[in-house]
Amino acid sequence: MPPDELQERWREIQAELRSSVTGLTFHLWLESLQVAGRDRDTIYVQAPRHTRTLVQERYAPLLREAAARVFGAPVAVSVVADDWSPSSPPPTARGATAGALRAPALNPKYTFDQFVIGDGNRLAHAAALAVAEQPAQAYNPLFLHGSPGLGKTHLLHAIGNYLRRFGGTIVARYATSDEFTTAFVTAVRGGSVEQFRESFRDVDVLLIDDVQFLADKVRTQEEFFHTFNALYETGCQLVVSSDRPPPEMGALERRLVERFASGLVASIEPPSVDVRLAILRKRAALDGVAGFDDATLREVAEQVSSSVRALEGALIRLVAHASLHGERPSPALASRLLGGSHPQRRTGKTTVAEIQSLTASAFGINLQVLTDHDRRPSNAFARQVAMYLTREFTGASLPAIGAEFGGRNHSTVLHAHRRITRELDEGSDAARTILELRRRLESLAPDRSR
Domain 122-267 belongs to what architecture? Predict the structure, then answer.
């Protein structure tokens, strides 16, 4: 593609990004990105050295989605350093081509060395390492499950990175279930299903992330089932992750769930405060973050306990605030910024009806809007806030919450929870409304105990 045309496409991608995040997020992390080149199905995006890791880890999926909308087809995005320059075209041999096309999907920062081990993830880590060292010799398939942001993606990438470095001729492919679905749908429409199958089956190790999102996609589930069988029967390793264990995946075909449960199923639980502190130390060292003493990091660890992703998001927020306002990081600053943004999940007697009523009142909408299929942005956002609060205050399962909001599926509820969590991480204007709703709901619990 000519450089001028690529730059024009990049401007369109930036417009997509700007409309997908808050203004502060775009200014801090995405505005400085530059497109550096394109090679077949991959575009290379330059990021400043001090933000490259964060952009790769938190915004690569957003970049891929924006690029796919602009180019009209799935596009891999590789986030590179600001001194990167296009190299000569890659060789066309099968192994070299496969490696070149698949390499951008793996985050080089996600390695076993960078994974902090604790009681809640010890089995999952040991099993993943065993799979990387001896694929298909034990724990096949390997099924990892846990709430979002606890390290499942890190372990899948770590397996791929280990094999890339030490696996010799072993070919590994990582993809999210959404990427698998998009590639399959594109192949069906373009009459290239056989090429699609070759790309996913001509591998030794297949790593599929967030498999729960295959729910309600009947044809994609069928294709994935046959891909799973083809690889398993030829002695290839399969590693799958989900936000829940196989017995709770009622929205997937039973035969798929049975395949997942046939190997080792390992859970990942939230880390203790000491493990969270170790994660923050490692992350601060990895990103070259200066000025954070142990007391400040411990305050962050004590304030944020829901997930590793939220923990790292809190550190990023603190770094950004200190940098923009010229303040020195301190326990007091961490407490002021994070206090209330990441409260512990409650399992009290607050009801869904109370949450819906308070949310509708706060947003000035009719209660029915929360359960109907009105897609106007303001109403959709209010609905997402209500679903987030329901998850936080009732501890109900994702499908149960979806049923309370017009029969929505678990994927919709999970997306809502992730979006609102991100709003709180970034301290957006909407965060004030959400926090005020939390405070009002929390005030209900003491009244009931009297």
Answer: 3-Layer(aba) Sandwich (3.40)
